[in-house]
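Technical annex, item 7. During the second reporting period the consortium partners agreed on a shared format for inverse folding records so that results from different sites could be compared directly. Each record opens with the tokenized structure and is followed by the designed sequence. A conforming record, contributed by the partner at site C, is shown below for reference.
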């Protein structure tokens, strides 16, 4: 496959916060992780839409789901923050209040894309805005299908601000049979949220089975859906009711600690209460492929979501892996940290079919390549992925996170086995999904 023309190096982000990460001798201990970000977004939105008061424990501590909660408050839902991270949300029984100002989605593409689906059938117009990073992310992928359902959506050169005109722009929404051109759980959830309020049925088809938290959340709140192999169908006109639920620990957050433990032969780490949804647990298969020893100590089901306790034990030799096709789509959030530890493997890691990484919070392909090279690695960059050879020692370096939470956390993990200290510029970006990350990392590392 021909190598892509190298992308220009990203402009270094302002180092509002620089974190020093020193090499570690081992990873040991146990953690209980904050609530899953994807589930927290969906529960927060549906609780605000449903009738009654929903009680959620272990809601995500990340900034993104709290952007969702702030938007739901602007739409008239009552959100009460209680002790121990619990949240009570009193919903609007399907009819939101017209907001008096634009809805600020912060850095959260999940908020902007999925909320547009809920708003498409509301009797008012409103605008969704975001920070500079979110304002560069593609939004045509929701505009086109929502327009086909009868909504009117205005974009700015294909990006935010996004103005959703609701039923003021025309008649009620119509059901839709739609094949997603890009595998995206956010787009699928957006259309199911719109389809919940449309006349007739809405069916979404995918070439790759993306994470199904939206479907499970809708069922938890009382909706009926039917699923095919790679499709899901919802009838319009259904009402949602409040629920009480605990949000499982975030597998995408667990990924950083699982990969950290994989780097040390004597590691022994236990993660309690982690979401084990099969559409998210693909990471465990890849780690096993690398030779990591993993044990699931217990498993239960909560509102359709599997929750388990994971133990990861170190290995003498990490092997290698090739990640492409459906695997890349299922691992899209975990690819940066897998690439970051690839130099420590024997055979390296090859990533393809991951073009979506170019349009995340940053160009993650370019930033991973840039930062691995800064640490002394040889990396081949392609338009849709990376080749990171194994058997490469890394040295401490200055890392530019690009203001991207997953880049900051991925290179904090890589730094644990490097020779010398590593400075992570823009480390505060970890708060987007996981504000406790660096404290948790310190807790389980022996130096």
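Designed sequence (site C submission):
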């Amino acid at each position: 496959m021909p190598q892509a023309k190298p992308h220009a190096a990203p402009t270094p982000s302002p180092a509002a916060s620089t974190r020093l990460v020193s090499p570690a001798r081992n990873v040991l201990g146990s953690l209980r992780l904050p609530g899953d970000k994807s589930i927290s977004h969906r529960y927060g939105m549906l609780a605000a839409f449903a009738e009654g008061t929903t009680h959620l424990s272990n809601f995500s501590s990340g900034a993104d789901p709290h952007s969702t909660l702030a938007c739901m408050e602007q739409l008239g839902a009552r959100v009460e923050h209680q002790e121990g991270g619990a949240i009570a949300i009193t919903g609007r029984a399907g009819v939101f209040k017209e907001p008096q100002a634009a809805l600020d989605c912060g850095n959260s593409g999940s908020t902007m894309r999925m909320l547009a689906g809920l708003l498409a059938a509301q009797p008012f117009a409103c605008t969704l805005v975001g920070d500079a990073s979110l304002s560069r992310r593609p939004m045509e992928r929701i505009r086109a299908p929502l327009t086909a359902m009868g909504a009117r959506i205005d974009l700015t050169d294909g990006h935010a601000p996004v103005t959703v005109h609701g039923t003021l722009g025309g008649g009620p929404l119509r059901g839709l049979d739609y094949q997603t051109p890009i595998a995206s759980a956010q787009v699928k959830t957006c259309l199911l949220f719109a389809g919940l309020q449309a006349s007739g049925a809405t069916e979404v088809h995918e070439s790759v089975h993306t994470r199904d938290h939206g479907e499970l959340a809708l069922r938890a709140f009382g909706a009926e859906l039917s699923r095919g192999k790679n499709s899901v169908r919802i009838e319009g006109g259904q009402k949602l009711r409040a629920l009480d639920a605990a949000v499982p620990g975030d597998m995408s957050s667990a990924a950083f600690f699982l990969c950290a433990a994989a780097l040390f032969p004597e590691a022994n780490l236990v993660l309690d209460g982690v979401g084990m949804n099969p559409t998210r647990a693909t990471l465990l298969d890849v780690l096993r492929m690398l030779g990591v020893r993993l044990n699931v100590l217990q498993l239960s089901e909560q509102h359709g979501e599997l929750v388990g306790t994971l133990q990861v034990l170190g290995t003498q030799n990490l092997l290698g892996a090739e990640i492409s096709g459906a695997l890349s789509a299922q691992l899209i959030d975990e690819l940066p940290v897998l690439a970051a530890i690839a130099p420590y493997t024997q055979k390296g890691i090859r990533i393809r079919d991951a073009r979506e990484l170019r349009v995340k919070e940053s160009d993650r392909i370019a930033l991973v390549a840039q930062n691995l090279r800064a640490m002394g690695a040889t990396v081949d960059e392609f338009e849709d992925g990376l080749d990171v050879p194994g058997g490469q020692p890394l040295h401490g370096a200055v890392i530019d996170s690009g203001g991207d939470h997953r880049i900051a956390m991925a290179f904090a993990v890589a730094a644990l086995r490097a020779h010398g200290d590593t400075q992570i510029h823009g480390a505060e970006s970890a708060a987007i999904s996981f504000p406790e990350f660096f404290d948790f990392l310190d807790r389980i590392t022996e130096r």
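The chain has two domains: 18-35+248-446, 37-246. Residues 37-246 form a domain with the UDP-n-acetylglucosamine1-carboxyvinyl-transferase; Chain fold (CATH 3.65.10.10). All partners now use this format for quarterly exchanges.
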